[in-house]
Every structure is written in C-alpha cells, then in structure tokens.
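Please decode residue identities from the backbone states below.
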C-alpha cells in the first residue's frame, strides 16, 4: 500500500499519539508505593488493560474520566488494597497529564499538510482537550466515546468515524485508520472493512502492556509515528 493513496487518516490517541502507559504508571506507582507494593511495570499495565476493558464493556456510556475512577477502585480490590476515593478521582482526572510520544506532534504536523486528520478515541471530550494541547495540531474531526456512547472495539465506533470521514467529503476508499492497539482498533477496523496502519509502539517488548491481547492483520506495520510520517518521503 502507498500512504499517498489516502486522503483521510483517523487516529487512535492513547497508546498511539499519547504515551498512556507512561502516564498510567506515573499515576499508579506513587499510590502503590504508599502501601509498599512491589509490582513490575508489565504487571501493572496488564492488570490495567484487563480491568479497563471490563469497565468499558460494562458501562459503555460512562465518561472516560469517571470510568478511570472505576478502574482505580477495581485495581485496589484486585490487589487487596483499601479503596481511596481521592486517589481514584486523581487518576480519573489524570489523562491531560499523560505525555505525548516525542515524535507525535512533528509527525502530525507533517501529515496535516496532506491529509484530513480525525481522532477516534476511547475518551471524553474534556480529557482529550488536555491531550490535544500536547499534540499541537487542529484535527478535522474528533470522535470520542462520549460522542458515540460506546467504547472501541464496539463496531458502532467505527461506523461513527466512517460517517465523520464521509462528512468531510472523503470517499470511503480513501480512509486509513492508524492505531497501536490490535484489540481496540486494528481487529475492529478489519471487521469494518477499513484498511489500517499498526503503529507498533511495543515492538521488541514482551506482552501487550495496557492493551488486551488480540489477533489482527494490519495493512501496514511501523514502529513509530515518525516512521509512519516518513512514508511520505
């Protein structure tokens, strides 16, 4: 495939553009340290991925910043720790503090010159606004779980972004979905008939991190946003 065959790129945000694993660990580790809990990064992230997916499936219309409160409470229960309402709320409000990957802003700026850029993210609008400041680009459309009423990998999210792309005047066959998560994005994009580019941020790392395991075949695989944007060259 050639990147220049497309006119619109829809992006997952967290894990693809925003380094959510670093953000999650920065919030969870100080809380665990208060209870002298020794857990590896992989163990924390894998537990998070399981619990987050369960919460998203159980309460698909819940705002993400509130769903993260539920995730924190569930992790405390899973690890035998006392519930901490204040810590849970801080975690729920932490998304705007999560850092962007170092290559995201520059890659998006380069891609913006040629493509319509769309966000398709499991987040609420207020949380994403904080992240958007770190990305330094104006997206042509923003599609969040708050707008849709469900979380990826629900097929409704991909039907929604298809309509958003069509509203921008882009033909369906000129739309490429770009994401890190096989579970949340690449597999359901395949099912929706969308070609996809896998930004494999965990290339060379064991396990799936904060993303549940899944099997899917992307149209293209690269290791970073910088590598993806360089395809234009």
């Amino acid at each position: 495939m050639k990147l220049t065959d497309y006119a619109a790129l829809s992006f997952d945000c967290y894990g693809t553009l925003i380094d959510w694993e670093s953000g999650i660990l920065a919030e969870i580790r100080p809380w665990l340290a208060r209870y002298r809990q020794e857990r590896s990064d992989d163990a924390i992230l894998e537990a998070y991925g399981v619990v987050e997916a369960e919460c998203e499936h159980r309460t698909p219309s819940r705002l993400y910043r509130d769903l993260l409160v539920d995730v924190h409470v569930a992790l405390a229960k899973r690890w035998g720790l006392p519930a901490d309402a204040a810590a849970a709320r801080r975690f729920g409000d932490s998304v705007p503090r999560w850092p962007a990957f170092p290559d995201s802003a520059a890659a998006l700026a380069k891609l913006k010159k040629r493509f319509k850029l769309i966000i398709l993210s499991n987040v609420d609008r207020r949380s994403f606004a904080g992240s958007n400041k770190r990305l330094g680009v104006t997206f042509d459309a923003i599609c969040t779980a708050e707008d849709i009423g469900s979380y990826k990998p629900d097929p409704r999210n991909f039907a929604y972004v298809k309509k958003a792309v069509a509203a921008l005047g882009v033909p369906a066959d000129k739309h490429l979905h770009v994401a890190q998560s096989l579970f949340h994005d690449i597999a359901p994009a395949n099912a929706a008939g969308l070609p996809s580019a896998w930004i494999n941020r965990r290339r060379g790392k064991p396990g799936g991190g904060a993303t549940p395991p899944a099997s899917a075949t992307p149209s293209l695989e690269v290791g970073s946003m910088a590598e993806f944007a360089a395809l234009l060259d």
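Observation: The longest strand covers residues 116-121.
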